[in-house]
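Question (not urgent): is this output format expected?
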Amino acid sequence: MINRQAKFGIGQVVKHRFYPFRGVIFDVDPTFSNTDEWWESIPEHMRPAKDQPYYHLLAENEESTYIAYVSQQNLLVDDSGDPVSHPQVPEMFGELEDGQYETLDDLKH
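Got this back:
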């Protein structure tokens, strides 16, 4: 497998390419690092490649907030400028500016 560079960073607000949800990235895996059961639950014709970065998101849609695990190929920059309403955002991040949340490490300096 070939490791690809992460296109998105911690604190960045992104949206899913196909599904109506968005979120803020709080962790990145260099390649797929979830269970085979999770992988096989994705319809075969839609399964993304495993040899790319996968992102952990504090995600939201119109009905709820949740944690999402999404391949790089299925993410786009969310340029709405709107904050993410997931209840854990204030625990992990500072202010939102230009589509990017300040990380708590940034706030300590």
